[in-house]
Design brief:
mainly alpha
């Protein structure tokens, strides 16, 4: 680890920021080129849910342009995130000791994989079931008129939210390494968190259907239990090795 002056830190930061902006520009150009395909991919669960019972419409001449522009922006961040995190890592790496670098490095890759897992869960599991429930709920034989722009923005926000929600095991590991939580403390909080998860699932699900709520509640429980197991199997042995020399 080499000590750097303030000027060297600022120059390094400027260089990393310039690279990150360049990465985002290239990523956005790629995503905008494929914006129609990305929009169609997002629309597929809705199309399958409404079938012949409705239409997807846009109410302004600029709706398609604005929607695909915004979708391209969020997708560009997702596409570029590994490279962006790599630039952040290269900036903070010189300030870390070797053991600290080894402890931090796995969280970057795991976090990205968990984010993709949340997006996949939303698209392939939650979207089909929720959309079908919403379309079939209530009065039958009513044609649905779905707004193109509104749907794309809503679906993108939900997928990003689920990607962040799936960071729960990663966050629990980080808190464990910071010695803020342990497996026994997490086990003691379990009953209260399960109730909190159920309230949260009831709030975020758009229909009063118990199965839709369970589709959100059960994955949250699974993620929490994975986090508890990770703290037990990874954090506890690490802390034991860390403090064992002090006790000997």
């Amino acid at each position: 680890m080499r000590d750097m002056t303030l000027i060297e830190h600022l120059e390094e930061l400027r260089g990393r920021l310039v690279r990150m902006v360049g990465i985002l520009v290239v990523s956005f150009a790629v995503c905008y080129h494929f914006s129609a395909q990305i929009s169609e991919w997002l629309l597929r669960p809705l199309r399958e849910a409404i079938g012949n019972q409705g239409k997807i419409i846009f109410t302004s001449l600029f709706d398609k342009v604005v929607a695909e522009f915004q979708i391209s922006f969020w997708c560009s961040i997702l596409l570029a995130s590994p490279l962006l995190f790599h630039q952040v890592w290269l900036f903070i790496r010189p300030g870390l000791h070797e053991n600290e670098a080894k402890a931090v490095r796995p969280f970057l890759g795991v976090g990205f994989l968990l984010f993709l897992g949340g997006v996949a869960f939303g698209y392939y599991v939650l979207f089909p079931y929720t959309f079908t429930s919403l379309v079939s709920y209530g009065v039958p034989n009513v044609e649905a008129m779905m707004d193109f722009k509104e749907y794309l923005m809503l679906s993108a926000k939900i997928l990003v939210f689920l990607g962040l929600l799936f960071q729960m095991p990663n966050v629990m590991l980080i808190l464990g390494f910071m010695e803020l939580v342990t497996a026994p403390s997490l086990n003691a909080w379990r009953r209260y968190l399960y109730v909190g998860f159920s309230i949260f699932a009831a709030i975020v699900t758009p229909t009063p259907d118990i199965m839709t709520m369970m589709a959100v509640w059960i994955p949250m429980i699974i993620l929490y239990e994975i986090g508890v197991l990770a703290v037990l199997l990874i954090v506890h042995p690490y802390l034991k090795r860390k403090y064992l020399p002090e006790k000997s």
